[in-house]
Amino acid sequence: MSGFVSFVSAGPGDPELLTLKAAARLRAADVVLYDDLASGPILEHARKDARLVSVGKRAGRPSARQAHVSRLLVDYAGTGAAVVRLKSGDAGIFGRLEEELDALRAAGVGYEIVPGVTAASAAAAASGLPLTRRHTARRLQFITGADVNGELPEDLNWIALADPSATTAVYMGKRTFPALAARLIAQGMSPDTPALLAESIGHADQTFMRATIGQLAERLAQESVAATALILYGALAGKEP
Hints:
Elements: E1 4-9, H1 20-28, E2 31-34, E3 51-54, H2 66-78, E4 82-87, H3 97-107, E5 110-114, H4 119-126, E6 139-144, H5 158-161, E7 166-171, H6 177-186, E8 194-199, E9 207-212, H7 213-221, E10 229-233
Parallel strand pairs: 1-4, 1-5, 2-3, 2-4, 6-7
Antiparallel strand pairs: 7-10, 8-9, 8-10
């Protein structure tokens, strides 16, 4: 096959956080398959005559099946097109990248991965916080708060997640955080451990709420999931900028 696929990381949504390489790949693309969270102003970097195909997946909404997305990548590449698969955040972090790579390898399609700014880095920067600190936060861990069924994964490393000296970023965990917090507290983590809820990161309506894991769990237990969110918890999450 003469076609080629570039997995382009769109970052959290702010077009100014798009890398130069990502912008160049968008300008050169014949076809762009994009996620919902990687649309908007970022798509303005694509050529006017490029074919734009929405393949976004959002919880609780009609979404493209993963097998269909993988098939589209192979089919478009089979026409000889320069294809961009535009993924929100960093393509390699909770973006189901491996399944799409497997499909391309099986079909003999060439590809590259263009890294980008992940939501945890963007949320910390926008709220004026580091993600690590010498002596007090020397470990950083990223987890997903939802398994394939949208529930809290049961196979998480609860000892590591309850470590007060780590900074933990929870992706896709807004709905399951009350259950996650309960498990952390049962594991010995203080309910007063600082937490930061970052919603709509990288967009004009982004918001941040500082709380404790106990307070945040109580709030989210009474709130319906709407805006996309990332949760940081650990000592650094409570630091004021």
